[in-house]
What we know:
This protein is an alpha+beta fold. It has helices spanning 2-20, 22-57, 59-62, 149-152, 166-170, 184-197; strands at 80-83, 95-99, 124-126, 137-139, 141-145, 161-165, 204-212, 222-230, 236-237, 247-248, 254-259, 265-267, 274-276. Strands 1, 2, 7, 8, 9, 10 and 11 form a seven-stranded antiparallel beta sheet that branches. It has a two-stranded antiparallel ribbon with strand order 3-4. Strands 5-6 form a two-stranded antiparallel ribbon. Helix 1 packs antiparallel against helix 2 (22-57).
Amino acid sequence: xxxxxxxxxxxxxxxxxxxxxxxxxxxxxxxxxxxxxxxxxxxxxxxxxxxxxxxxxxxxxxxxxxxxxxxxxxxxxxxxxxxxxxxxxxxxxxxxxxxxxxxxxxxxxxxxxxxxxxxxxxxxxxxxxxxxxxxxxxxxxxxxxxxxxxxxxxxxxxxxxxxxxxxxxxxxxxxxxxxxxxxxxxxxxxxxxxxxxxxxxxxxxxxxxxxxxxxxxxxxxxxxxxxxxxxxxxxxxxxxxxxxxxxxxxxxxxxxxxxxxxxxxxxxxxxxxxxxxx
Length: 278
């Protein structure tokens, strides 16, 4: 709109110049110069935005980490659920679901997980984030479903399980803090709320969850979530929860990276062993 207004102004000055003479031509030249500069600035903003986007899309390779390609599923009217087979090291690689509110699990509670994800160890460490009188031993690593049970209704499938710290899963070393934007539960809860709020329109959620590894490490350093909505006409819907971790990914999906770490432990990602960090 700024460029259009300025262009009209320049044209108007041109007409006046024909009537009023050379003094107006000086003003015309200045306005023309201003128009060119404005266009250059406008172009630079778009160019900078493109560079920032390219850097984000290349985030994994830039950190020498690797994971499944981030890409939404083709929109369909029926539920889709895809699980990648484990790689040659037995590591979980990718889980992807597209669903509506009617596809959500009817019950909130899943059965206990019997399988052990690759690199998972049964460590109980003191919670060093609490005062000494409140400190207690707590489970370091959870057996975590990439696609939460409430979304997938699946609970004991090795293709959907990873070893994830309690902090990365539920937001706290020893108790749940589901308002913590650095944990998966924060986004899972909000995505389920989004689905329920769109139940009457039949809008769909596309959610892809990917473990991000370094080299041959058995435990992921990060978990990537990528989510996007689709309306009844298969038009994309942006989903955003105003988290500082949210960025734009491929095909305008919102992308978040969750760090798989804990304040009370030093984790050896190569094999999943850990030592207590006081």
